[in-house]
Write a structure and sequence with these properties.
Largest sheet: 8 strands, mixed
Structural class: alpha/beta
Oligomer: single chain
CATH topology of the largest domain: Dihydrodipicolinate Reductase, domain 2
Strand order of the largest sheet: 8-9-10-7-11-12-13-14
Helix content: 25-40%
Distance between the termini: 64 Å
Amino acid sequence: MGLLNVAVIGAGHMGRYHAEKLAATEGARLAAIVDPDAAQAGALAKKLNCAVHAGYRDVLGKVDAAVVATPTEHHHEIALALLGAGAHVLVEKPLALTVGQADELVAAARRAGRVLQTGHVQRYASAFQALAARIDRPLYIEAERLAEFKPRGTDVDVVLDLMIHDLDLALALAKSEVTAVGASGFRVLSSDIDIANARIEFASGCIASLSASRVSQAAVRKLRLFQPGLYVSADLQAGRLRYVRRQDGALSEAEETHQGNDALAEQARAFVAAAQGRSPVAVSGEHGRQALALALEVSRLVAARLQHHGERA
């Protein structure tokens, strides 16, 4: 099977990482870096020995696949054009700005017979995969995701920036339709939502309680799950899992460590394999659309609550 020629659209923070991983991925050839910032794109292209272009239209019809790692507002336009030109596409999360845009991308990929993968990289973390393999009937999911404030991420609120990771993980674990959503949140250091909490109810009876903040002084990524006979505590930042089981009336505990896993590299390998038809798409456009729809509903509820209290004040 020939090499998959891949372009990375966007040479910023995430684009640089995507380019480095793809350049080292078996079965792929990093063909181009695309970014209007000539100095930034040129330096990265020189480092990775590939072509450089100022606009995404320069690579339409000239590459087999592309990663879209631009600001979210450009995802729909660029991914739609790439799919229309016959390229397989991996889009950084969130998939798009609106559910309507996400639906258009999913439909375009289906028409073109091309892979549309969403960049929910946490799915590829070995600690999460080990945890998910042991969960078959979750009753309660609790997630906490904290990060330091970084102005580069404020093109979207904390729900689309951080919480969407855990919304996607909760959807993947619950494997059930969402029946109710409640949410609250606050603005702190930006003009948008910086702290949010959401309660998600599923048709299966499972409940997820998720918290996200981008104004913390330390990074935290914790996940706790409960199902009949089993409690799992996961520190996804450190790759540590702790299991507590009840069998024959007695409690047993076990711990595992999953370190050294490069989730972004695993995502790149999965994208290349799916584009080459060697494996199914692990995190599809449909998955990205589902997580986006839930994230937008959480954001809507938080914004409505803030407006209500603002008007009262």
